[in-house]
Request: fold
Amino acid sequence: MSEETGAELTALQAALAAEHAAVYGYGVVGGRIGEARRADARAGYDTHRARRDALVREVRALGAEPVAASAGYALPFPVPDSAAAVRLAAELEDRVAGVYSDLVRAAGDARRREAAAALREAAVRAVRWRGSSVAFPGLAERDGTDPATGSAPATTAAPAAPPAAASASAAATG
Reply:
């Protein structure tokens, strides 16, 4: 397997893991969402199930074993009511968009177009849930959590600040 194919497979597996988590999360959303947004929750759930199933086929087509879903996922915050369910749905879409942005970068041709479409759709769903948008969906600075699981990464090292940010910070304090 070439390095390029390996990177694409890694990104596909990450997208699949994120879709597994989104399907689980939408199960929670569906159990807490108010009647007025229930159709939106069902549509999100169905979309993520379909994307998950397509990714399983793509990973298998590359000759790899698809990453399995976990039995459960840690939620980023408690979801006791409909308002929290709406926030969770927006968060799920943001996380999925982030993983698809990685797949856009790693993939080529048709798979890149499909990943870009998935990113766009997740960003649109996030806006619908949240009622507002972000400048670059899927490319926002990451808060150190794994988009697929919502947990902190295994390493504890903080990411380095981009040179421009470090310069601006030094100029502001100096």
